[in-house]
Amino acid sequence: MGLMTGKRGIVFGVANEMSIAWGIAQQLREQGATLAFTYLNEALEKRVRPLAESLDAELILPCNVGDDGEIETVFKTVEEQWGQIDFVVHAVAFADREDLKRPFSQTSRAGFALAMDISAYSLVAVTRCAVPLMKDGGSIITLTYLGSQRAVPNYNVMGVAKAALESSVRYLAAELGEKGIRVNAISAGPIRTLAASGIANFRAKIKLMDDYAPLRRTVTQTEVGNSAVYLLSDLGSGVTGEVHLVDAGFNVVVSA
Ligand code: NAD
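^ thats the input. predicted complex w/ nicotinamide-adenine-dinucleotide below
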């Protein structure tokens, strides 16, 4: 018996084998979860499908989280197949690379709205569709980063979107607790992924971890996955509205 045996859920955000969502999915499967996956577009489907199949995924569906109709279709299909779900992993974010390159004050109106829509609002939209399927309660996690709380160089508009995401976690948790639905965020240290490649000088963030984080290194997708298992399983049954740090302790030190 694994910690997730008998639980079914949807993983949004696998792009490739470097994705944090992939690290999470592997740990969930290892603990017995039954999984559905979504992918952004046809180009990514080619990458995601074989990965998902290797974890015996029962559903592999397209979903652009910028489109309410696509989100609704995912949950309708899942409801037809499973009737109900126990968890959702939201590991999705996007900002225009051009906006991330510019000084923060030069962020375009459209770029600000896009980052907020895909990286923050999508959690609200996904949660709204998940709630009716969480008939016996459930657990939802999203992924955030320290740039929500501090002005981290080059993180810019994504930091603002992550602040909105973390606040959304608290409001969703407050609303849904009485239904037995928990909502939490994992704030991960920097990890080399496709999304991270859009952040200028990302290497410097990894170097800071190596130099100053109490564990003198950054974290792995597997370590984030282990915390996801805690929050999505009954081990985390008393935890909601939290930002759970998986950052090798970096948050507690002051870097030079
Ligand atoms: P990733 O590129 O592997 O994952 C990002 C995912 O978002 C991709 O699967 C992409 O297809 C998806 N996506 C983007 N726009 C979308 C849309 N409109 N609809 C549906 N999906 C869309 O990178 P990652 O680093 O694994 O990112 C996962 C999450 O972790 C993100 O929220 C990211 O901000 C967060 N995070 C990353 C780090 C890091 O250092 N890599 C640190 C902390 C938090």
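The pocket of nicotinamide-adenine-dinucleotide is lined by residues 13-15, 18-21, 40, 44, 63-66, 91-94, 118, 143-145, 188, 190-191, 193-196 (CB under 6 Å).
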